[in-house]
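Lecture notes, unit on protein representations.

Consider one protein chain, 392 amino acids long.
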Amino acid sequence: MSIGKSTSITTSLAKIDTPFLLVDKAKFDINVAFLRAKLAPHHVILRPHLKTVKSIAGAKHVLEGFDSPATLSTVKEAEAFADAGYTNLLYAVGIAPQKLPRIQALLNKGINISILLDSVAQAKAVATFCQMQNIKIPTLLEIDCDGHRGGIKPDDMRLVEIARILHQGGAELRGVLTHAGESYDCISKKALVAAAEGERSAAVIAATQLIESGLPCPVVSVGSTPTAHFAENLDGVTEVRAGVYTFFDLVMAGIGVCKPSDIALSVVTTVIGHNEEKDWLFIDAGWMSLSQDRGTQSQRQDCGYGLVCDSDGSIIPGLQVIGANQEHGIIAAAGGDIDGANDSKKLSDIAVGTQLRILPNHACATAAMHAGYYVVDPEQVELDYWARIQGW
């Protein structure tokens, strides 16, 4: 970034009322390109999960075109992306029967949208709806690869039962999907590689069971940000999903998927006071802007409610947000940052009115507290703004 651009952007940021979300576009672009390059040798489709970005403007820098595969976490997102011209969508939350008319409306518009389920009850509801409305809804079966949440075990015979209800009942059986949620608790490269292989294996076993039962299974979908980055073998997989990789966060840094310096998202906040006796710094960012997510609490380095950066985005070693009330937070020295550095500077030396940036524990949760992002792009003099999709 040139000096002129840097000065202009710094001035622009100083004029915005805090707290607000800020995206470092240079880091964002590197993160997006890295995963695409990582998966390219495996010859699989990357279907980014847009639940993190939740923005049409932001997604333009993640997806390669209007027919690019995309994963979504709400029907509202699907409707917004369809209205924006995107046509290849996956709603990756177990379907509630009441949402089926909205899915039908998208299909009637020519949107290639698929849904997800993992039970006989859901399958019967989808099949009945398809018959009544004379429509085929593409459906994936959720597979449980690690006991993290829902899904059917890959060797469970109910898998074939559910698939037959869909296939014979008028729906389109599109394939299987799994998510290695337990990968977020891994603490070594070996464990991450094993989680990725467990995810792949479960999906392939389930797909094989369907195929051997005479049922179609064209899609074998796996994915989480940790496993997408550490997968060594993707044989039998057709597509990989990942979401938080665009921004990264302190949870991902804590398990070794990225470094804190790779995190592209921060909350810009202002110093509003001090407690000199306790050497605390007060900021105008509380849990309403940072979120209450304490995802690093069980990791080797507890980052409180977020690590502290200066106004240019450089981490200030040893500082973190140790407390978060509704609209203000407390910064204190916490014995070192993720990299174990320390800093002896008094917090009272940081003047009231100073802007700081807070790196989030969980980018999805923090972003959800805001209506949009201000974006620092090294290729532009002016700040950009990406509005977020809100609602369900």
